Every structure is written in structure tokens, then in C-alpha cells.
Amino acid sequence: MNETNAKQTSVAQVLQVLNELAPPELAESWDPIGLQVGDPMQPALRTLLVLDVTFPLIKKAAAVGCNLIISHHPLIFTPLPAVRADQPEQRIVHELIKNSISVIAAHTNLDAAPGGVADCLADALQLARSSRQTIATYGRAVDLPRAESLRHLLQRTSQQLGSFGCRINTDQDRPVKRLAVFPGSFSEEWISELAARDVDALICGELKYHLGLMLAARGIAAISAGHDVTERVVLRPLVARLSDRLPQISFAVSDGLDYNKMAF
Fold first, then answer.
1. Residue 134 — φ and ψ, nearest 5°?
2. In the structure, what pLDDT confidence band is assigned to residue 262 with cuts at 50, 70 and 90?
3. Three-class secondary structure assignment of 102-118
4. Pairing with 43, which of 110, 139, 164, 185 sits 20 to 30 Å away (CA)?
5. In the 8-state DSSP scheme, what is residue 81?
6. Distance between CA 153 and CA 115 in Å, rounded?
7. Residue 60 backbone phi and psi in degrees, to 5
8. Longest pairwise C-alpha distance within the chain
9. Are the C-beta atoms of 181 and 121 separated by less than 8 Å?
10. How many Cβ atoms are within 10 Å of 244's Cβ, its own excluded?
11. What is the pLDDT of residue 256?
């Protein structure tokens, strides 16, 4: 990386490129995306892409000279009453400021954007791009080239996403022809659209118990693979896209805590 050129690229300029890839107007009204911590005029020398901003990650970023973090999940969802080093949530912000590390959040806008989280999840599951349909902005529906048993789909999802704790809302195997994928949390408001589109099965990050029952009552199988594994798939593709637009900046990925690596 050319450090001299990198100093000419500000945090605000990185945010501008990110907004072109994941337009802010795609975000939900409640979603606090954008620059959350830091100085927009600060030079962006090294940038780390993550799912969540945590204290261990801040220590890691500071150790390698990273001064910008792009996080999928916003660090600050509600206003902080103070920024104190003795309060866990506030301590994270305190450490960011102390280490001059800026934080940008790209959340529901990145979920919905073309090439964003939903598309990257479909890519990770090797679902054909040519037959994808957008569902409720955050999901993608695909007609499989040939019917696949639900049992095989469950095994394939576990292997391809590295999720060894997949949950399913049925104990009956069945053929799956039309499949929908939704990264992260699945919302009740999307059930009617799945039913209207004759979706056979759903793969999502997480699913409330009663929603699993509602889907089952409509004959829709639901596989919840884990919030993290269904969203982490966007990080490396996003690095590639940002690097193409901003070659003067060094980008890297931190996968953070992997809940599936714990062995019993």
C-alpha cells in the first residue's frame, strides 16, 4: 500500500463509496447506519471489516494500526447517556476514541443491496444468480435446477456455511424446489410473501419459535443456520469490491467470535 496516497483518502470518502455499494435509502428507518464514531476528515489508512465491534477487536485493530472499522451491526443503537471507561458498552466507544479509530455501520442497507448480504448468502449456498428473485428486499428466492430433499439441503447448508447447529421446524423429509434465503433474523411480516410465492423451504440466520410454527403450518420448512454465519459471508466479497474502488487503502477482515468452533 502507498501510505502517501492513502492519506489523501478520508473516512468520509470511504463512506461515500460504501454508500454507493449499499445505498442508505435501503436501510430501515430505525437503523443507525453510517459514521457512528470518529472524524469524517480522518485519513483512512487501514480498514477492518467485521460483523460486530467488540473490545478484543478494538485491541487487535489498534495493534495493527487500523484506524477505520466497517461493521455490519451498528455499535450504537440507542443514545449513550455518557462515555465512561467503567461501563461495558460505553467502554467500547471510549477505547475507539482513545485509539482514534472511526466506525462506520452498514446494516440493513447492506442486507438489501444488490451484491449485499442476501446475495452473498445465496452465493455461499451456490444458488444460481440467473434465477434469483428479490423477496421483501432482504431475501432472495431461487428455483433449484432439480428438486432436492430437505434432509440433503440441511446437510448442505451446514457444510457450506460451517454451521454445525442448524435448527429446523419439521421432522419430515420432503422435496424442495423453490428455496428462499434471508440472512440474519427472519421477520414475521415476510411469511405471507413466502406463502404467496409457493416457497418450499427457507434458510435464515435465526427464527423465533412461534414463527417456525407459523411457517410449518403453511407447509414451509425453515432452517435456521445461525445469525453470524449467514451474514459473515458478505465480508470478503465486500473487501474485494471496496479494494477495487479504493486500491490505495489496505482492507482486511476479522471474522470475530465463531460460535461453531466450540467443541464439546
1. -80, 135
2. low
3. EEEECCHHHHHCCCCHH
4. 110
5. S
6. 23
7. -65, -45
8. 61
9. yes
10. 9
11. 75
The contacts of residue 142 (CB under 8 Å, 6+ apart) are 122, 127, 128, 131, 132, 133, 178, 179, 180, 181
Nearest to 96 by CA among 64, 54, 131: 54
- Among candidates 75, 77, 66, 72, which has minimal Cα distance to 42? 66
Please count the residues of the chain.
264
Cβ–Cβ < 8 Å for 225, 202? no
Closest residue by Cα to residue 145 from 164, 118, 127: 127
The CA distances from residue 253 to 81, 142, 160, 187, 237, in Å, are 31, 29, 19, 28, 10
- pLDDT of 263 higher than 60: no
Mean local confidence (pLDDT), 157-172:
94
Q: For residues 175 and 148, is the Cβ–Cβ distance under 8 A?
A: yes
For residue 153, the one-letter residue type is L
> What confidence tens digit (pLDDT) does each residue in 179-217 have?
999 999 999 999 999 999 999 999 999 999 999 999 999
Q: How confident is the model at residue 4 (pLDDT cuts 50, 70, 90)?
A: very low
- Binning pLDDT at 50, 70 and 90, where does residue 8 land? confident
